[in-house]
Amino acid sequence: MQIIMALLVGLVFGMGLIVSGMTDPSKVIGFLDLAGNWDPSLGFVMGGAVLVGLVAFGFASRRDKSLLGAPMRLPSATEIDRRLVLGSVAFGAGWGLAGYCPGPALASLAAGGAKPMIFVAAMVAGMAIFELLERLPARGRAA
Question: Which residues cross the membrane (predicted)?
């Protein structure tokens, strides 16, 4: 049942990304172009997502189990460290350069085209490199 619900939630999320314009790189870049022809419409999409997330996390934080009975595993990190900042900068730079972030890129695969495929391939390669680097001994690696 959890796999079916995950599939349904993922489909609804993907459709929401498509309908909202988050899968259109030119719309995303227009949102990020504050000094040029700025398109603020995606700000409303993100604001709505933040509001839904606040309500959902507030509800989830008071529970020990999910609605389907699985253990509740919420993020526990509360500190802003160098890794978080560098990861955020890399994410933002990639989003600004390509016009995609991971969710919309995966949803864009359904429409076909080379750009989302190249982005997703690069994203998966970056994840693999990160995992390989994480498995290196900690000596000499900054945390």
Answer: 41-61, 82-100, 106-133
Condensed to tens digits (0 to 9), the pLDDT of residues 91-122 reads 888 888 888 888 888 888 888 889 999 999 99
pLDDT number for residue 125: 94
Backbone φ/ψ region at 60: left (φ over 0), alpha (ψ -120 to 50), beta: alpha
Residue 141 lies in a domain: no
Contact 106, 120 (CB under 8 A): yes
CB of 40 closer than 8 Å to CB of 31: yes
Asked if residue 65 belongs to a domain, the reply is yes
Structural domain range at position 21: 2-134
What angle (nearest 5°) sits at the alpha carbon of residue 21, between those of residues 25 and 103?
70
* Domain assignment present for 69: yes
For the segment 19-30, what is each residue's pLDDT rounded down to a tens digit?
Answer: 888 888 888 888
Cα separation, 37 vs 33, in Å, equals 7
* Six token digits for residue 41: 């419409």
